[in-house]
């Protein structure tokens, strides 16, 4: 069984007991969250349910394992012969989550 759900403007494919890296969630470590924005659901009998935009009654239960940040991305801007140089960096915060269960709602 797997599901495709939406989080932070991105879509993720999830199976039970899988560990995913999502955009930062406002939840404490060890807390459980339920996501109801399930876009596609496939059960054990190879029956696929596609939502319009979401599958009715379907949800995914997540457990937050930890919080960390991605590698630093360097942004360097330069205009030649104009004495213009800017160097900045960015580290995207994210959360590690474990998929506990996928429910179909039926």
Layout of strands and helices, then pairs:
Elements: E1 2-7, E2 10-15, E3 19-23, E4 32-35, E5 38-42, E6 48-50, E7 59-69, E8 73-79, E9 84-90, E10 93-103
Antiparallel strand pairs: 1-2, 1-5, 3-10, 4-7, 5-6, 7-10, 8-9
On the 0 to 100 scale, the average pLDDT is 93
What is the strand tally? Answer: 10
How many helices does DSSP assign?
Answer: 0
| Multimeric status of the protein | single chain
- Main β-sheet: number of strands, strand sense, barrel status? 4 strands, antiparallel
Question: How many domains, in number, for the residues?
Answer: 1
What is the N-to-C order of secondary-structure elements (H for helix, E for strand)?
EEEEEEEEEE
Strand order of the largest sheet: 2-1-5-6
Helix fraction bin? under 10%
What class do helices, strands and sheet pairing give? Answer: mainly beta
Unreliably modeled segments: none
Radius of gyration: 19 Å
The end-to-end span amounts to 15 Å
- Form type: elongated
Beta content comes to: over 45%
Description:
There is one protein chain. This protein is mainly β. It has one domain (2-103). Helices cover 0% and strands 61% of the residues. The protein is built from no helices and ten strands. The protein has strands at 2-7, 10-15, 19-23, 32-35, 38-42, 48-50, 59-69, 73-79, 84-90, 93-103. Strands 2-1-5-6 form a four-stranded antiparallel beta sheet, with no helix packed on it. Strand 5 and strand 6 (48-50) form a beta hairpin. It is elongated, with a radius of gyration of 19 Å. The two termini are 15 Å apart. The mean pLDDT is 93.
């Amino acid at each position: 069984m797997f599901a495709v759900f939406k989080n932070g403007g991105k879509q993720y494919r999830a199976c039970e007991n899988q560990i995913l890296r999502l955009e930062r969630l406002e939840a404490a470590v060890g807390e459980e969250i339920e996501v109801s924005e399930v876009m596609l659901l496939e059960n054990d009998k190879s029956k696929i349910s596609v939502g319009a935009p979401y599958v009715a009654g379907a949800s995914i239960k997540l457990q937050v394992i930890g919080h960390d940040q991605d590698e630093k991305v360097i942004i360097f801007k330069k205009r030649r012969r104009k004495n213009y140089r800017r160097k900045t960096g960015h580290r995207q915060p994210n959360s590690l989550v474990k998929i506990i269960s996928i429910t179909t709602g039926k």
